[in-house]
Design brief:
Strand content: under 5%
Number of helices: 31
Structural class: mainly alpha
Shape: flat
Oligomer: single chain
Length: 653
């Protein structure tokens, strides 16, 4: 279409203007790093394969991987080095659930199930932490189950669970409570020399108190010195134990010396009043009653500046009640009850009630003592086996066996298990009032509950039964305990004498027969002469000789049968090897006889006998030669058999 002139000129002007092209946007540009689309597709496929094999890492995993790459390799640890105990942070997840479950069993007083569950968990996917094990050990210690405690400790040691300082403290306390201070000290030395953990102040408190209770004051003083050498300053509690030991031994000078030493270490300022009860005992021992009461007023008066715990109050109560000031002790215990406000203020504990019960018993007020003992639950105090034994002993010594048995019946209701001492107290009290059957029943309960009485207790039981003519029952207890106790000659002679006095010599010979069968018991010439003397009274001394000769004959026959059985086994071994050789159907050649002889000599040498060596040749070479010759003979015979079969096939019919 033709344009008009004005329009044409306008179009030319527009074309003549300079045209500024805007640069392309940066986003629109795409810089490719591949020379072709095929190469780009190959790179995409390669990345997809790598992502399938190695998923992308998170930031935490990436930092952890980098740390592992940077960390130097760990040095090889010595497998014989002692293991460090686990930290408390391991109690999480399933291990925390296991810990809580075992604590629930302990609260329900099912210690056997708690210990068994702990043992089973050791070899499961959720091993118990040492803190769980310590909870079970501590519960067993509170109930005086010392054998179960040591058994569980030995089990976890073999299982490789590293103990911490609390575990060692429980073991020390166990041996000290069992009146075995030397064993406790041996374990302490082993702990110091081999354990990777250090002792704590509680360790030395336990050791010092236990040594004092076992009458080893000198060892306790050495332990105080060793505590200072380890960099642990002895505190007032340790000094109170040592001062108590001096009071028990009647050493008033030692009490004041220790008190002055403690004041010097504290620069003359004492804040804990735990030592003042034993200091009062020192004044009372010297007859200085006025100074003792001044000390009491300073420690427990209204203007006292000392911190008095329940233990500190108990020392003061003990000093007052044992030195003619029981009324003052009762006023003090009333004040302690008023101050008692758990858990903020603990002014009364189990020891407080034990001290007051002992004071009432010393005053002859046994009914009041039992009432005070039963008030423990009102102040959140639970009596233990030692508390029950203490009061039962006081009642039995004063002829109150009925009340003692009533208190014994309350032990089960309070979840407290009696120990050997409990049963022995009741058994001896029954013997004093000629209740022999009841005493024997207490002994039987002790054995049935898994406790192990010692030989002295057994001897008292048997002696009481024999005195009332119950020899058969005494013999039954002897048969029961001879398997659990190592009877001495005196116990054996007493039982033989008792049976002989009632004419039961056949039972005597039966006892001798059992002793001869038991190889661990030595039937000495002294015992033989004693038994012969008892048998000689009725003209049966030859019965012992015949019995011993019969035993020797039976032992000789048994030994002969053992030898014959060994020979039969040797012959069966020879026959088994001979069955591997060719059958006699092919005829026994000279080589075969030599091979058989060589094989028999090999069996003799391998079955324990030594084959004779000839011309300086060695046993192993002869065995190899014999086996080789047997193999060659077998091969030659098999080849001959094959040849004969081929000859038969070629014969015309």
């Amino acid at each position: 279409m033709a344009l008009s002139k004005p329009t044409f000129l306008t179009h030319l002007k527009t074309l003549a203007k300079p045209h500024h092209c805007s640069p392309p946007s940066f986003v629109a540009l795409r810089c490719l790093s591949f020379s072709s689309p095929e190469e780009a597709a190959a790179e995409r496929r390669r990345r997809k394969r790598r992502l399938r094999v190695e998923p992308p890492l998170s930031s935490a995993q990436r930092s952890q991987q980098q740390a592992q790459q940077v960390a130097p390799p760990k040095p090889i640890q010595n497998p014989n080095a002692p293991k460090l105990p686990e930290p408390v942070t391991v109690l999480s997840g399933n291990r925390l659930n296991l810990h809580n479950k075992i604590l629930k069993l302990i609260r329900e007083n099912d210690l056997d199930e708690a210990a068994l569950y702990t043992r089973h968990s050791v070899y499961s996917n959720c091993r118990p932490a040492i803190y769980t094990v310590n909870a079970v050990l501590n519960a067993q210690l509170r109930q005086s189950k010392y054998a179960d405690l040591l058994s569980l400790h030995r089990f976890i040691t073999l299982a490789g669970i590293a103990p911490n300082v609390i575990t060692h403290n429980l073991i020390f306390q166990t041996y000290l409570d069992c009146k075995k201070p030397d064993t406790a000290l041996e374990h302490y030395k082993q702990f110091i020399n081999e354990s990777p953990v250090n002792p704590s102040p509680t360790t030395y408190r336990i050791l010092v108190k236990g040594l004092v209770d076992n009458g080893k004051l000198e060892k306790a003083l050495e332990m105080k010195q060793e505590m200072a050498e380890k960099g642990l300053a002895p505190d007032p509690v340790v000094y109170s134990y040592l001062m108590l030991g001096c009071a028990k031994s009647g050493d008033s000078e030692g009490i004041f010396k220790l008190f002055e030493e403690l004041k010097e270490k504290k620069d003359g300022v004492l804040e804990d009043g735990v030592v003042y009860g034993n200091l009062m005992k020192g004044y009372f021992m010297r007859g200085m009653e006025k100074e003792a009461m001044e000390c009491y007023e300073e420690a427990c008066g209204e203007n006292s500046k000392f911190k008095m715990s329940a233990v500190a109050y108990n020392y003061v109560l003990d000093a007052l009640s044992k030195n003619g000031k029981f009324e003052e002790a009762l006023r003090l215990v009333d004040r302690m009850k008023n101050e008692h406000n758990p858990p903020r203020r603990l002014a009364v504990n189990l020891g407080s009630f034990n001290v007051i019960a002992d004071g009432y018993c010393a005053e002859g007020k046994f009914k009041e003592a039992m009432e005070v003992f039963r008030l423990m639950g009102d102040y959140r105090c639970s009596p233990d086996t030692l508390s029950f034994n203490n009061l039962i002993d006081q009642l039995c010594q004063n002829g109150l066996l009925g009340e003692a048995e009533e208190l014994y019946g309350e032990m089960g209701d309070k979840g407290v298990n009696p120990d050997e001492y409990t049963y022995v107290l009741l058994m001896d009290a029954c013997f004093k009032v000629n209740r022999i059957d009841d005493g024997a029943s207490y002994f039987r309960k002790m054995v049935e509950s898994g406790l192990r009485p010692n030989l002295a207790v057994y001897n008292r039981l048997v002696d009481a039964l024999v005195k009332v003519g119950k020899v058969d029952e005494a013999k039954s207890f002897y048969d029961t305990m001879v398997k659990k106790l190592k009877m001495d000659d005196a116990s054996f002679k007493f039982m033989v004498k008792s049976l002989s006095d009632v004419g039961k010599l056949d039972e005597v010979l039966k006892m001798v027969d059992e002793m001869l069968d038991d190889e661990s018991i030595d039937f000495s010439e002294e015992l033989q002469e004693f038994v012969k003397e008892e048998l000689r009274k009725v003209g049966r001394e030859n019965d012992l000789t015949k019995l011993m000769e019969e035993k020797e004959r039976l032992k000789a026959e048994a030994k002969a049968r053992e030898i014959e059985a060994a020979e039969a086994a040797k012959r069966s071994a020879k026959a088994a090897v001979s069955s591997l050789l060719p059958s006699k159907l092919f005829g026994k050649k000279e080589g075969e006889s030599q091979s058989t002889e060589a094989t028999e000599s090999t069996i003799d040498s391998s079955s324990g006998g030594e084959a004779p060596l000839q011309d300086g040749s060695e046993g192993p070479i002869e065995e190899a030669t014999a086996i080789e010759s047997a193999t060659v003979d077998a091969n030659s015979i098999s080849e001959a058999t094959v040849a004969d079969s081929q000859a038969v096939d070629t014969k015309p019919f």
